[in-house]
Automatic annotation (TrEMBL):
Gene Ontology molecular function terms on file: transferase activity
Species of the source: Thermococcus aggregans
Taxonomic path: Archaea, Methanobacteriati, Methanobacteriota, Thermococci, Thermococcales
Domain of life: Archaea
Domain Metallo-beta-lactamase: 31-267
Alphabetized PANTHER family for the sequence: 7,8-DIHYDROPTERIN-6-METHYL-4-(BETA-D-RIBOFURANOSYL)-AMINOBENZENE-5'-PHOSPHATE SYNTHASE (PTHR13754:SF18), METALLO-BETA-LACTAMASE SUPERFAMILY PROTEIN (PTHR13754)
Name of the protein in question: MBL fold metallo-hydrolase
């Protein structure tokens, strides 16, 4: 079913956490993603915090440098459970210090692990990310949904990308991740990743955390939900760090077919994929770094 998502008038994305600090930059890098997404519509301004990095401190430091008061955050989206997207939650919620909805997938609290090079917990870190109840006590209102949700004119979450919705080359990608399910370790395809899309005057802007379901499948899902097939930009980590040359090439081809104009990526995309995007898209590829501000 296609939903009339409306249109946002203006969009500004502040990069608050990224694996790269940028050249000669005063901002702090860390492993992870956090974006402050400022949306303008009908004379209103709303601030969406998309992911919270591994640690709160560098995010709050970068916010201060950008003159962003954490109290002005209107809502939070957690793209998926991985620690590098959720670890800063407790510290940042303490600074937001008010009731805010937190949009995430119902499986955000799952117990998941990476097995290479050794067995390590990969989910929300209990001490830094906090428990469900601790976050509620600080004002967090969990909005856990597998389905897409329209948040405001132009802005909608993508919900879960089902197996059927994945494009061929993004299916069955093994990433040595496992989760506990009824007392058994089973492969984790990170079904809990929900993306965000914003319909702007220039077209759709699709934002992923690690884009574990595949950035092309997530972009297609945004088109399917909204019925808008003009894609302006893809933003976030694309998790191509361990992808082979074929998958990287197919991603480039799919972006070209979809008419993607701008690519803003970093985090888990990996140097080889970034170099390919830089070669194929020239100045329309921009590497993310802490403190970067994207105006759309
Ligand atoms: Fe990540
Ligand atoms: Fe991840």
């Amino acid at each position: 079913m296609v939903v009339d998502v409306g249109t946002a008038d203006k969009l500004r994305i502040y990069v608050l956490a990224e694996d790269y600090a940028g050249y000669n930059s005063p901002f702090l890098a860390q492993h992870g993603i956090s974006f402050l997404i400022e949306v303008k519509f009908n004379g209103n301004t709303r601030r969406i915090l998309f992911d919270v990095g591994s640690y709160a401190e560098p995010v709050l430091f970068n916010m201060e440098l950008l003159s962003i008061d954490p109290k002005t955050v209107d809502m939070i989206i957690l793209s998926h459970s991985h620690f590098d997207h959720t670890g800063g939650l407790l510290g940042i919620m303490k600074k937001i210090n008010k009731e805010v909805p937190i949009f995430a997938h119902p499986e955000i609290f799952k117990v998941s692990f990476a097995t290479e090079p050794e067995f390590t917990y990969a989910g929300i870190p209990p001490l830094r990310g906090g428990s469900k109840g601790e976050i509620e006590k600080l004002g967090g209102i969990w909005v856990l949904s597998r389905d897409p949700i329209r948040l405001m004119p132009g802005v909608f979450t993508l919900g879960e990308v089902s197996k059927e919705e994945k494009v061929g080359f993004e299916k069955n990608v093994t990433i040595s991740l496992y989760k506990l399910e009824k007392g058994r370790l089973v492969p984790d395809e990170v079904e809990d990743e929900i993306g965000l899309a914003i319909n702007t005057k220039k077209g759709l802007v699709v934002i992923g955390g690690c884009s574990h379901p595949g950035i092309v499948s997530m972009t297609r899902k945004a088109i399917k939900i909204s019925g808008i097939d003009q894609v302006y930009a893809v933003v976030g980590g694309f998790h191509l760090i361990s992808a082979d040359e074929e998958r990287i090439q197919k991603t480039v081809e799919a972006f070209k077919e979809l008419g993607v104009k701008k690519i803003y990526t970093g985090h888990c995309t990996g140097l080889r994929a970034e170099a390919t995007f830089a070669r194929e898209f020239g100045k329309n590829f921009e590497k993310l770094h802490s403190g970067k501000v994207i105006e759309i």
